[in-house]
Amino acid sequence: VPRVLSGIQPTAGSFHLGNYLGAVRQWVALQESHDAFYMVVDLHAITVPQDPAELRANTRIAAAQLLAAGLDPERCTLFVQSHVPEHAQLAWVMNCLTGFGEAGRMTQFKDKSAKQGTDRTSVGLFTYPILQVADILLYQAHQVPVGEDQRQHVELTRDLAERFNGRYGETFTIPAPYILKETAKIYDLQDPSIKMSKSASSPKGLINLLDEPKSSAKKIKSAVTDTDTVIRFDAENKPGVSNLLTIYSTLTGASIAELEQKYEGKMYGALKTDLADVMVEFVTPFRDRTQAYLDDPETLDAVLAKGAEKARAVAAETLATTYDRLGFLPAK
Ligand code: TYM
């Protein structure tokens, strides 16, 4: 059975619609056909300062949302990154294999550090993609379900895996990104030229799944479209409408062509009103399920403990092989 691995940061509390449509939805589908490993990446979260109590709470909230979205601990391995110490251990090895310039070319780092200045940027943020490389290689993942913004990190993973294999002998599976074209990039509702993101989007441009459903409906209704009147998918000339059609299509299973037909001759307002209803129908039970998992932290923690145990078994084996290939003297 092919293996998949992916991760999500716990920093925002609520997942946003881009996280869900771009990644988490695929995670749920892939647990049926793949040996799936999914984690909440708290080690990645501390690359920027975190309040400890908030980080702890948000880690549980992230796990609860993953279960609410449909991850089934019987069908996948769900865990918290820091529960598996091998991530930090393999990350060190990968750090030593990465060129300084190579790491400096990662665009996410360049964007973030440019915004906050290098003195306020941690070395951890610089090596963040290399930790992600370790995450993926530890599990010998074949595929990595993510949104478009993570493609470069998966490419780096392939490069480093090939480099290690070439230097020390076949050790790591070369992973491929698993990025669905339709939902690779969900756009900001107010500015459809940028991706929806917790850092760059304005509150009105961003749908947080755990927000009040009414507020999310309002954001859909006030989404930016264009001065044309035709409801048609055209990402280049009609990015706002196209984004709404993508969201509508993915949440309901109706094809874009079906939706174009349904709204032929209708105004943007009709599309938005219906999509607002679709959104409410989606987020309302999602929030309830998330809350139910959070109301029972013992069970939630037990799920994560079991996941960590399963993950460690795989991770420890890969790390042991890696250390051996590197020439580290065994401890015994
Ligand atoms: P993170 O937490 O920023 O985002 C989680 C997932 O959501 C996707 N995503 C989007 N997809 C479509 N449209 C959007 N607007 C949008 N915004 C976010 C992201 O692509 C991602 O798949 N570095 C990763 C976490 C990570 C990881 C890993 C992923 C750590 N280790 C190993 C895969 C494998 C991150 O910060 O994702």
From TrEMBL:
<dbReference type="Pfam" id="PF00579">
    <property type="entry name" value="tRNA-synt_1b"/>
</dbReference>
<keyword id="KW-0547">Nucleotide-binding</keyword>
<dbReference type="InterPro" id="IPR024109">
    <property type="entry name" value="Trp-tRNA-ligase_bac-type"/>
</dbReference>
<dbReference type="GO" id="GO:0006436">
    <property type="term" value="P:tryptophanyl-tRNA aminoacylation"/>
</dbReference>
<feature type="binding site">
    <location>
        <begin position="147"/>
        <end position="149"/>
    </location>
    <ligand>
        <name>ATP</name>
    </ligand>
</feature>
<feature type="binding site">
    <location>
        <begin position="195"/>
        <end position="199"/>
    </location>
    <ligand>
        <name>ATP</name>
    </ligand>
</feature>
<dbReference type="InterPro" id="IPR014729">
    <property type="entry name" value="Rossmann-like_a/b/a_fold"/>
</dbReference>
<comment type="function">
    <text>Catalyzes the attachment of tryptophan to tRNA(Trp).</text>
</comment>
<dbReference type="GO" id="GO:0005524">
    <property type="term" value="F:ATP binding"/>
</dbReference>
<dbReference type="GO" id="GO:0005829">
    <property type="term" value="C:cytosol"/>
</dbReference>
<feature type="binding site">
    <location>
        <position position="186"/>
    </location>
    <ligand>
        <name>ATP</name>
    </ligand>
</feature>
<feature type="short sequence motif" description="'KMSKS' region">
    <location>
        <begin position="195"/>
        <end position="199"/>
    </location>
</feature>
<keyword id="KW-0963">Cytoplasm</keyword>
<keyword id="KW-0067">ATP-binding</keyword>
<comment type="similarity">
    <text>Belongs to the class-I aminoacyl-tRNA synthetase family.</text>
</comment>
<keyword id="KW-0436">Ligase</keyword>
<protein>
    <recommendedName>
        <fullName>Tryptophan--tRNA ligase</fullName>
        <ecNumber>6.1.1.2</ecNumber>
    </recommendedName>
</protein>
<feature type="binding site">
    <location>
        <begin position="18"/>
        <end position="19"/>
    </location>
    <ligand>
        <name>ATP</name>
    </ligand>
</feature>
<dbReference type="InterPro" id="IPR002305">
    <property type="entry name" value="aa-tRNA-synth_Ic"/>
</dbReference>
<keyword id="KW-0030">Aminoacyl-tRNA synthetase</keyword>
<dbReference type="InterPro" id="IPR002306">
    <property type="entry name" value="Trp-tRNA-ligase"/>
</dbReference>
<feature type="binding site">
    <location>
        <position position="135"/>
    </location>
    <ligand>
        <name>L-tryptophan</name>
    </ligand>
</feature>
<comment type="subunit">
    <text>Homodimer.</text>
</comment>
<dbReference type="GO" id="GO:0004830">
    <property type="term" value="F:tryptophan-tRNA ligase activity"/>
</dbReference>
<dbReference type="InterPro" id="IPR050203">
    <property type="entry name" value="Trp-tRNA_synthetase"/>
</dbReference>
<feature type="binding site">
    <location>
        <begin position="9"/>
        <end position="11"/>
    </location>
    <ligand>
        <name>ATP</name>
    </ligand>
</feature>
<dbReference type="InterPro" id="IPR001412">
    <property type="entry name" value="aa-tRNA-synth_I_CS"/>
</dbReference>
<keyword id="KW-0648">Protein biosynthesis</keyword>
